[in-house]
Amino acid sequence: MEKENKKVSFSGIQPSGDLTIGNYLGAIKNWVSMQKDYESFYCIVDLHAITVRQDPKELRSRTLKNLAIYIASGLDPVKNTLFIKSHVPAHSEAAWLLNCFSYTGELGRMTQFKDKSQKIGESVSVGLFTYPVLMAADILLYNTNVVPVGNDQKQHVELSRDIAIRFNNLYGQTFVVPEPLIAGSGARIMDLQNPEKKMSKSVENPNAYILILDSPNIIRKKINRAVTDDYAEVRYTEDQPGISNLINILSTITNVSQEDIVKRYEGLGYAGFKSDVAEALVEELAPVQNRIKELLDDKSYLEKIYSESAEKANYIANKTLRKMQKKIGLVLR
């Protein structure tokens, strides 16, 4: 009974590239902290990844790697539903239905679409344009109460809310209207070479990000090469974005406040501070990396997890889908 009364959380990460410490510290660790209090659905959003071209072999490999990362990072497959989105056909079917209740104007205003379409040009895919509707389907199918996201995805959750309210107004109460759950500033990990931008696995410069599976020596080198400034003081201020980003990394790992970290390094230079950030990261990631390798060597276990989770996700998603179909006026099969 206690489990049934929990609020529902839903989120996911694309397998479009190897995951970074931005994904780990900014999203997955937050999910782990939520698993006692929420009925959580966390998927590998492979259908979102194919809005841009993917190497098929790499996509399959990264999909399983993401699942291993979820589990190795502390997400309990018993407490959470960890599944691959393409294994739940209701997502695609619900997305088509919701497309019919979405407007081209609101989709055209999505910041991520505008940014990416400007880079790609006329060959931008329709899938990239309707990406937010598929995300809305993901969220709404599970009666989701909260969606843990970064500020860059808040606009998509707001669209999900708009679509849910629009559908509910037309056909009566059908969807729970979700709320975005934004993590604190300490969990927003920025680019190591351009700290004005969020850390991304798609950046060409490998020194701009740290992968979850980077070796200790690579982690140390990338932290050492992280851009700083000429102040030579460890301060948490807007005019020191590089140092502030490293403070956020250390704060998120150690659960020590940014203010206390600044006090700890008062009067000291950057060298020792950077070294401590790197060692904290190495220590944090070592058991995760070891567990990931164990899981990837046990494909049958991963298959068991995603198969059982897909069965549960299909059951819940199909119930919502049938409700949608019935209210719209489709003949149920």
What is the count of structural domains?
A: 2
Query: Beta-strand level of the residues, as a percent range?
Result: 5-15%
- Architecture per CATH nomenclature, i.e. the level-2 architecture of the largest domain: 3-Layer(aba) Sandwich
> Please, what is the average pLDDT?
92
CATH superfamily of the largest domain: HUPs
| Alpha-beta content class | mainly alpha
What kind of oligomer do you see?
A: single chain
Rg value: 21 Å
SSE string: EHEHHEHHHHEHEHHHHH
Task: Please provide a written account of the structure.
With 333 residues, this protein is mainly alpha-helical. The chain folds into two domains: 7-187 and 299-328, Rossmann fold, CATH 3.40.50.620; 206-293, Tyrosyl-Transfer RNA Synthetase. The chain has 13 helices and five strands. It has helices at residues 21-34, 46-49, 56-72, 90-99, 104-108, 111-120, 126-140, 154-171, 216-225, 241-254, 258-264, 270-296, 299-328; strands at residues 7-13, 38-44, 80-84, 146-149, 179-182. The strands form two sheets. The chain has a three-stranded parallel β-sheet. A two-stranded parallel sheet has the order 4-5. Strand 4, helix 8 and strand 5 (179-182) form a beta-alpha-beta unit. Helix 3 packs across helix 12 and helix 4 crosses helix 7. The two termini are 32 Å apart. The mean pLDDT is 92.
